[in-house]
Amino acid sequence: MSALRIKKGSSSHSAYNLRSSYGDDVERHTLAVTVMNEPGVLARVIGLFSGRGYNIESLTVAEVDHEGHRSRITIVTAGTPQVIEQIKTQLSRIVPVLDVHDLTAEGPSVERELGLFKVAGKGEQRVEALRLADIFRAAVVDTTLESFVFELTGTPEKIDAFADLMRPLGLVEVARTGVAALARGAE
Question: Where does the record place the ACT domain (predicted)?
Answer without folding.
Answer: 30-105
